[in-house]
Amino acid sequence: MIFKYLITYILCALLIFLSGLSFKTSARTSSSEADLFSLSIQELIEIEIDIASNDKKGIYEQPSVITLITRSTIESSGARYLKDLLKQVPGFWLGTDTLGTFSVSFRGIWGMEAKILLIIDGIEQNEMAFGSLVLGNRYPVSNIAQVEIIRGPGSVKYGGQAALAVIRVTTLNQATGDNKLNLMTDIGKAGFHNGIVGFTHSGEVTLNASQLEYGLSGSLGYGDYSNDTWQALDGYQFNLQNNSNSQPTNLSMNLRYNGWDLNAQYEKLKQEDRLLFGDSGLFFAPNQRYTQTNELSFLHQAISLGKEWQLNNKLALSSKLTYTNQKPWNSQGQYGHDLSRKINRSRVDIQGLYALADNSSLLIGSHYYYEKAEVSQSYIFDPTVRYFGSNNASNNDYSLYAQYESDWDFVNVLAGIRYENHDLAGPELVPRLSLTKTWDKLHTKLIYNEAFKIPQFDTVASAHNAGTPILDPETSKSWEMETGYQLTETVSLVGNLYLLQVDSFIGFNPQSASNTTLGDFRTMGMELQLKWQLDKLHVNANYSFFTVEKSNIDSFKIPSNKDAVLGIPNHMFKANFHYRFNANSRFHILGRVISGQYACTNDPNFICGEPEKLDAIYDVDAFYQYRTTHTLWNFGIKNLFNSNVYAVQPFKGGQSPINYESTRVMLDFQYSF
């Protein structure tokens, strides 16, 4: 409990004792790369990345729909965790799954289970039992340098957990000479309190006439994800304050020397839970409500060693070995509700990039991994027969992929294909094709992707044990068109249309309480983005819309509205306003207007009942920021109008909505050495 208030005490002490020093040094400002106002629109779109392409290119030349979040944007967002950044990105919104966990939907589809891939410093983060992207109060932004997002399928380059989107995070460990101490805290009513403390240290030393670059970072977090009352579908309720504490712990290291790259990661999320599957303990013996919290935990440990070779002026090779050890969805609970599982994976990646000419290249890559899962304890299922009659299982997976990219005078072309064979999913072959073209102020993209989902150990096991085995692989097809125009040096508009079809959708079946193949699903929609940058004012706004074009899946269908699904808003408007008073002072407003979501709110049978349409969300954050040479201070209000910000389960899984973000005071301090 001491840590719960420690960060606030430290920040108050810093405000008292260091404020004089901060104002005395105000004549100098922080580095331009950390200043939101230092880059023009043209300079922002020319930042080169290679998340979707063979070679590094600007976002308008990338052969996918791309969002790029820089460090300066992060520092001007007031975000605490990765989920807070994603809430500002077109098409994404936060939802809840089971056991009080959170993830994101994208373009009308719930993305938690093996559909959205998260990569941090080249290492995949999705847990390996179900492939879930578990977010919530996890992955603090204090150590994030940049976030690149493919808003669309990425299976050809990234494999079978990238059917909806790819999120690639680069940490400050990859920088040189970046040394920071971060303290963040939120304070709400009735003693509600959240806090994060983090540090980053990086630099370089000379070793045998070569530079050894290193980076080290760590963070600790604490606090309830909600201080509101939660009500189950049968009317049972309790307050989530002091019943939903999340404690994320992160420690990572990076070493780079003569083309070698070593990364080590330790990440653990411990979270209190009394919700279970929305029943608060009733579903499992002794079939009584919880009177105390259980501990849910996710452990991720990984180490990777990579090497790059530039063999000549045309051919570059890279290889990487990665070992990952995880303990996902483990729990220690009341009434002996304990679960213990462990999963490990050994993986090797090889990739070659060949410059066919000045304007064309060929990327060829391959990977192989072996993974093993073992469950030793469970109150939900019989652990001795979990995996086809055994308590353990193993899989092999290998792939071969290629991308040809060429920049012609009239069009830029990228054509790719991937073959992957997994013991559980079988063989899959998926192509992609992208046509892009940029003129002086105009750009356009035509994109076609096919993708697939690799169901993980427990997805397949739960379906098999319930008598509803997964017989067909989940596949998807996506058509996208993006067009953007820079109206002036200070104003740009970008819009995109999409059609996304998922066949043999794998999800949760409330009748069998297991994963299974649910049916086919198709959404279509649009996303619009506006950037307006003046000398003292920056405005970024986006609007997202989706509708259901086709569906035969009852698990998230809304009988009264065929255009909507459970838990995911059809309309979202998000805007950021940043005003610079002078070289050191800024004021930031970030707002989200979210259309009413359909939610399961009342059913004594814990399935859904008649879905209810919730009120629209008006979620606004406002804060003042002060910068000096070495310090950054934020002070403001989150959820200014105290709107009910609900995380809704986007399928009939027994979970009622969670109101997770009430009004609170934010106070941040960052010191750069």
Full CATH superfamily name: TonB-dependent receptor, beta-barrel domain
Sequence stretches where pLDDT stays below 50 over 5 or more residues: 14-33
Query: In one word, what is the shape?
Result: globular
Alpha-carbon distance between the two ends = 30 Å
Beta-strand proportion: over 45%
Query: What is CATH's topology name?
Result: Maltoporin, Chain A
CATH class category label: Mainly Beta
The average pLDDT value, as a whole number, equals 93
Number of strands: 36
* CATH architecture label: Beta Barrel
Largest beta-sheet details: 22 strands, antiparallel, barrel
Rg computed from alpha carbons, rounded to a whole number of angstroms: 24 Å
Q: Report the structural category.
A: mainly beta
What order do the helices and strands come in, and which of them pair?
Elements: H1 2-24, H2 41-45, E1 66-69, H3 71-75, H4 82-86, E2 92-96, E3 102-106, E4 109-110, E5 116-120, E6 123-124, E7 144-150, H5 155-158, E8 165-171, E9 180-188, E10 193-207, E11 210-223, E12 229-231, E13 237-239, E14 246-257, E15 260-273, E16 294-310, E17 315-332, E18 340-357, E19 360-377, E20 392-407, E21 412-422, E22 426-438, E23 442-453, H6 457-465, E24 474-486, E25 491-509, E26 514-533, E27 537-551, E28 571-580, E29 585-594, E30 598-599, E31 612-613, E32 617-627, E33 631-638, E34 646-647, E35 658-659, E36 664-672
Parallel strand pairs: 5-8
Antiparallel strand pairs: 1-7, 2-3, 3-4, 5-6, 7-8, 9-10, 9-36, 10-11, 11-14, 12-13, 14-15, 15-16, 16-17, 17-18, 18-19, 19-20, 20-21, 21-22, 22-23, 23-24, 24-25, 25-26, 26-27, 27-28, 28-29, 29-32, 30-31, 32-33, 33-36, 34-35
